Amino acid sequence: MCGIVGIVSSADVSYSLYCALYALQHRGQDSAGIVTTDYGPMVTHRKQGLVSSIFDEDTLKKLTGTVGIGHVRYPTTGCSTAENIQPFFFTFKSHHIALAHNGNITNYTTLRDMFEEKGQIFLTTSDTEIISKIIIDELLQNHTIEDAVRRCMRIIEGSYSVVLLIDGELYAFRDPFGLRPLGFGKTAEGGLIVASESVAVEGIGGTFERDILPGEMIHVDQNRTIRFVECAKAEHYAYCIFEYIYFARSDSVIDGALVYDVRRSIGSSLAQEAPVDADIVCTIPDSGTAYAVGYSEQSNISFVECLIKNRYMGRTFIMPSQEMRERSVRIKLNPISQHVRDRAVILVDDSIVRGTTSRMIVESVRHAGAAEVHMRIGSPIIKEPCYFGVDMATRDQLIGSEKECDEICKQIGATSLHYASLNALVDAIGIAETDLCTGCVTGTYPFPVGRKPCKRTTIQYM
Predict the structure, then answer these.
(1) What pLDDT does residue 391 have?
(2) Among 87, 101, 106, 268, who pairs with 158 as Cys (CB 3.0-4.6 Å)?
(3) What is the CATH number of the domain that holds 287?
(4) What is the pLDDT of residue 104?
(5) DSSP helix, strand, coil percent of the chain (3-state; round to 5)
(6) Which range marks the domain in which residue 319 is found?
(7) Quick one: pLDDT band at residue 351, thresholds 50, 70, 90?
(8) Which residues are catalytic?
(9) How much is the pTM?
């Protein structure tokens, strides 16, 4: 979770950074920040809240500079406090440095202990600060930022996409497995933008070029010369399936696949795998919409909206507490009783994680008069935690960790329930299963996490 962006331009970048972060708001609702520079001291504004409430015209005017980075945060490692708001920024040996990170460093505690033994002081509880310590360590040895990036890839375990400013030069890099997305494009002014999703590029009128490859670093110097450096190459990648299932915006292109088309294809497979005699197909908006369209097209059952979303509500899944999620569901989705009364309804959603939201939605549709409520889910059963930045940290949070489909169906109160098969998901993404992280549904991770089963992929460092 979290969204990152970096922009190099010939004009002030603050407004473009704001628009890009606005396009990435779905990746984090806890806090946001922007750092800008003109190849010297940095200007920053960071605060808890939504992008639209943090930045106004006066604030953006003060964020002067033709280079900058930004971040929207959802806290996974590190609590929701002011000191953990990114981008982090600091001065070291006359270098002005700022960085922002999307992902989760699984060996954070070990690395923190190592740096504290060497006398390093930590100011936050965020795993992102480890990256800054590696940079400082390399600069102390008169090494380059490229050396620091290579060392990050050697010693950091977990997921990371990073944007980094040092003395006005922009760097961005992605972990060797590609767990978290990162791409780049050209701005309308002829500059460059790197961002978590293509929608951030398009949101400022830019042109998306391609994904930054796993293990790749991009560097834009003060002359706006662009270099791509392959720092590490894994035998197999581990693109996150949950980006396609839920997390990415449906109009994003992630590692070559349009997310909307992936979800629509899964919806079509759901209709083939689990047909049901029903009157209408309904989406649980917004992330379930493409699945429902695909289901309707394949089944020839009419697609009808039966739940209307309050557009002023954010994403309930990424809210920081279960109590907040439950309260939000009640005001986020309102059933249209005239559409569902006395009808057999197929409700299509992207996933079931904790089960609370699904149960409340089924109850509300039944209360509105539906005769039957059939649930169709665009992912396999989520059985295991995610250790790489999606907020599914422990098995006891997951309704599917101990229960099979029939038990889950009873618990959420549905007439029937079917999850998409892993084969359907893999086929829809169009990437080989060996190059996907399926840990949350299979329990097998791309590399060792504690004693969990893993694929034991080798990495070649350049």
Answers:
(1) 74
(2) 106
(3) 3.40.50.2020
(4) 94
(5) 35, 25, 40
(6) 253-442
(7) very high
(8) 2
(9) 0.92
